[in-house]
Amino acid sequence: MPAQHTIFGRPVRLQMPPRRFQLLGAIVVFLIVTLTLFGPPSSVDIPTVEEVKDTIKNPHLPKLPSLPSVHSPFGPSAHKPPIQPNSTTSSSYGVVEWFSDFKWRNPFSSSVTLDENRALLPPRKERPPIYTYYEPRHKQDKAVEEAEQRLLLAWRRAWWAQGFRPQVLSLAEAIKNPYYGRVQRMQLDAKAETEIMRWLAWGFMKGGILVDWLAFPMAPYDDPLLTFMRRKEYPKLTRIQPLNNAVFFGEDAQVEKVIKKALDNPLFKDPNANKDKIAELGSNEGGAMIGLLTEEDMDVDSKADGVAYYSSEAISSTYKTVSEKLTNTTQAKGLNELATLINSHLHLTFQSTFTDGLAVVKPLPEHTTALMYEAIDIARNLTQCPASPIPDSCPPNRPKCKPCNPSHTQSLQLMTSFQNTSTLYSIGVIPHPYTLCLLHYTRDAIDGNFLRRETQRDQWVLAATKDLLGDDASGEHRVLHLKEMIASPYLRSNSLWLTAERESQHDLDWIFGFQLPRIAADSAPSSSVSPGPQPRPDMPEPLKGVEVPEERWIVNEETRLHKAREAIKSTDKNMRPIVDMVEKWNLYDTEAWRFARAWSARRRVEREKWEEEETKFAGTERKAGVQSGDGGRWND
Ligand SMILES: *[C@@H]1O[C@H](CO)[C@@H](O)[C@H](O)[C@H]1NC(C)=O
Ligand SMILES: *[C@@H]1O[C@H](CO)[C@@H](O)[C@H](O)[C@H]1NC(C)=O
Ligand SMILES: *[C@@H]1O[C@H](CO)[C@@H](O)[C@H](O)[C@H]1NC(C)=O
Ligand SMILES: CC(=O)N[C@H]1CO[C@H](CO)[C@@H](O)[C@@H]1O
User: Fold this and answer.
1) Residue identifier of the C-alpha nearest atom 8 of ligand 1
2) Which of 229, 473, 510, 582 is the most exposed place for a label (fewest CB within 10 A)?
3) So where does this one cross the membrane (predicted)?
């Protein structure tokens, strides 16, 4: 007899339903299980109009549901991932927090960080160390030393911007090398000794990249040599042919091996007797060390032109104006001019990399003029011709460059949406959604009714990606794309992202690798180019088809921008819920803003921390007379 099934004590008869119902039943069960496990589609998690409305009417009601934890059905009970070291910094808009993870390509940071305020960033790319050797001469003039420090700072900045971790070595490292005593006893001439000490210091650091402090990266970020050097794998000890002894790379064991081999050279058996021969080594094209080695000890790469070396030969043959001043009495002046010259060549390299010029992206352009001040300021300075003691000169690695022409500077245009080309440098300003609401709808305050009835969600993200992704892409797709542009290793060197709420940009020089012009000549561009500051490029043309607002409306925009900044900063218990509400209403815009803000905060923290670690060594901002943060007294 079959078992009798009961429910609440009543007997029930079980009978298999017909086949087609079995299938339907299976589908229903599958749907229920899927929904339970993975949660409903994400847009359902976004608070509804009713919820927002209720919160506004009754501030005492529980808060709006928090951001959707898209793939985390058991969200609230999960543990937050542990907080990573140095992943917070303070700002006037509260704490900026981030979490670095491989899974950063996620439309909502909070689905991984489980924390609305913590942005999910890509893992930090490790910076390969790059070394230079600098030893001030004894009893050097103070002005000369300062000028050299300034050059070292330029060296560090340029390599930092290219993704390296530049460090200035000195005799202190060489002394730690076990071979130091032996070299010192040899009593070599100054030139040969410096070269060998340089290798000892490098050997002590266990290999890597060793470059001269007058060798600068002057090429696009994806230049083959720079890309190779960033990979941090140097299978064979190598030098670069036309650069003499300016660039070497190799691994620890190889460096150690050649140092040993060089010091075992028969010439050193009796250094005194071989004095002349040893002194001659210095004139070898790869420096004294190379003269002590044989060909098979080192590879020679002759196809690399990503690095510009300002050797004394190059300076005296190509940059005569500067070399004339590098004599005893005006040496400091000469070095300062050399620094300005190098800065101009770094800037020129940037300008020639982006042949289509600069784009300042201004989505929703009707009422956002005041939002763009900072971006346009930076863009104009970037397109301005750099000041230079020899204005029409070219960097040593690109003698056929096209010098900057003040009457025909790099193009600078406004665009309503981002473009996908690597020859155009874009500057974007991401507003907080609250800021955007005030400006775009020309309001002085926002309330729930207005937000719900009159505003569209996530307008900024939609407008900013219109040209790239068309009209049909989803918000998730758009915000992911923006994150790629901001942070992916391939795209991030093509654009700069500011948040509208941060008013000053202190680390631009370290992002670009050169000092932006901060002084401009007043005169109109003249045909003959003179040394010193060049005229400032004009404002970009207004966008076609967009009415240019009158001055008084722009003044209103400025006031609103100020109000929005105050509101976002505010911890007031009446203000905070409104800002929160606007954030929840615009999840994608908020996500883009948080991401960009955390990205630039992390970059800044990384740099400041590193500057702090390096304070004891040569070439820091402090030693070069630059106040951390501003341009210091070396403004042009
Ligand atoms: C520079 O000074 C050094 C030593 O102080 C001297 O030997 C040299 O001749 C000077 N050179 C010039 C160009 O004055
Ligand atoms: C942007 O351009 C690159 C290369 O030209 C291409 O691979 C990529 O798919 C483009 N992206 C979009 C969104 O069009
Ligand atoms: C750009 O140049 C102007 C002067 O021409 C200067 O006032 C401003 O501070 C500069 N901005 C940046 C970001 O360098
Ligand atoms: C600047 C800063 O906060 N540095 C800290 C980074 O994290 C390490 C390890 O937790 C600390 O020792 C630093 O002080």
Assistant:
1) 328
2) 473
3) 21-39
